[in-house]
Structures are given as C-alpha cells and as structure tokens.
C-alpha cells in the first residue's frame, strides 16, 4: 500500500528495542513496506533541548540527506516516527533550516513527510483484532504528541478499534516529567510531576498504560506497578503479533 522510512532512533533502540520490532511487524502486516535509511540516526532533539544547536543541526542534516536519498531511489510516502519527542523535532526541520538556502527545501520536504506511526495507521486502517483483548488501557498522551504535534485522536481510535477499553487520564494535558532532558536536569520537579501523573493514571482503574514516547514510558514506568507499553505494541499484539513482554512480567 505504501513505502515508508522508519526512524530507528537512538535512546529507544537501547531502552526498548521491541518497540521498533512491533512497529515493523504492525506496518508490514498492514501492507506497508518499511525501510531504514542508511545514514539516518539521532533526530537531534536532545541536543536541541540543551541548546547545542550545531550538534542538533548536524544530526538533522544527516537524516535529511539519508531520507532524501531513499526517496529519490524508490519513493517514500512517509517518514514514520514512533517516538513522539523525535517526531516533533523531525516535523520542525523545515523551520530549523528556513533561513538556510542550501537545506531549506529538502528540510521542508522531510518535515512534510513525517508522521507519527499512529497517524499513518489511522490512515491505513487497523485490521480486525486477531485475538480477544478488552483490557482497560489508560492512554497517556505525551506532551510532544498532543501539544507539539497535535496528534490527539488517532492513538485513541486505534486502541478502541483493537478492542481495548480506553480510559482517559485526569489532567491528561499535564507533563509526566520526562520532557526530553528535563528529568535529568531538573530531577526533583520531574519526580513531582511523575508522582502526580502516576496518581492520575492509577485513578482510572486501568490494567495497562499505553504511550507513544519512550521518555514517558520510562519515566512513568519507574513510579508505577502497572505495565507501561508503547501503543504500537498493543496494536501489534491485537492484530496477531506477540504479547508485549511487559504484560507477561506484570
């Protein structure tokens, strides 16, 4: 149906490589060809957060070059990102290079192609569940997802289509305390935010927490007994993939 490039990322591949595996299985099962562009790597968001602008732009240039090459060779319908913090940055490449005549055009094209994985799956349409689900899932919408990208409905629609009982988290507009490098640079405030988020999640009575950002998954997971998984892991499982390891461990 489509050909997409997947941003494999850096922190996520170390913290939870199963997320990329689930993403590739899910997309492939739904008729989407997935390629990983040689030379693409870190999106540059973490260095960008810290004000290390040249390092951030260097990462962005490497990605723009890699994805442009893959697009020229075989065409691309989208650049899929499954970490919303990274997705917000990739969608911002056009703005970051707006005053650079050598890169502005290509950066804008890359930003226009960038989609969160749930945006793409919402367009493609989820297959009927291959197994019964029905678990109550508290969906945590990362700040980078709901505020940065304005991706609100697609993850919720997909979880419901997969048969899960969606539970909204009270004060869901508030940060969990991860916020890129914030939990490292401001740990005390980040811990307070996590404690507040955990109380809100637990109040839903859900059995599982789903999120679309590895920073949030790690941050919330450190303070809660419930399994915290990526949205695509649940969608993959529901449509025929393996059960997420965190659910077996719960």
TrEMBL record:
Signal peptide: none annotated. InterPro entries: Cys_rich_dom. It holds the Pfam family CCG. Keywords: 4Fe-4S, Iron, Iron-sulfur, Metal-binding, Repeat. It comes from the Bacteria. Residues 4-90, 137-220 form the Cysteine-rich domain. One of its GO terms (molecular function) is 4 iron, 4 sulfur cluster binding. The keyword Lyase does not apply. This is 2-hydroxy-acid oxidase.
């Amino acid at each position: 149906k489509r050909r997409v490039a997947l941003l494999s990322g850096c922190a996520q591949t170390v913290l939870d490589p199963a997320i990329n595996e689930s993403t590739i299985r899910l997309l492939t099962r739904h008729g989407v060809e997935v390629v990983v562009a040689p030379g693409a790597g870190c999106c540059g968001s973490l260095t960008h957060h810290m004000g290390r602008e040249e390092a951030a732009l260097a990462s962005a240039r490497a990605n723009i070059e890699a994805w442009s090459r893959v697009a020229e060779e075989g065409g691309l319908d989208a650049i899929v990102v499954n970490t919303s913090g990274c997705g917000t940055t990739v969608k911002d490449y056009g703005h970051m290079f707006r005053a650079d005549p050598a890169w502005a055009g290509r950066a804008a094209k890359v930003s226009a192609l960038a989609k969160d994985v749930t945006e793409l799956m919402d367009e493609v349409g989820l297959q009927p569940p291959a197994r019964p689900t029905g678990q109550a899932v508290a969906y945590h919408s990362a700040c980078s997802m709901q505020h940065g990208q304005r991706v609100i409905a697609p993850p919720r629609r997909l979880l419901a289509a997969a048969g899960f009982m969606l539970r909204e988290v009270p004060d869901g507009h508030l940060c969990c305390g991860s916020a890129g490098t914030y939990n490292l640079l401001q740990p005390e405030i980040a811990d307070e935010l996590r404690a507040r988020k955990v109380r809100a999640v637990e109040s839903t009575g859900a059995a599982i927490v789903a999120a679309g950002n590895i920073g949030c998954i790690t941050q919330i997971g450190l303070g809660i007994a419930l399994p915290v998984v990526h949205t695509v892991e649940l969608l993959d499982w529901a449509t025929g993939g393996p059960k997420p390891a965190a659910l077996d461990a719960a």
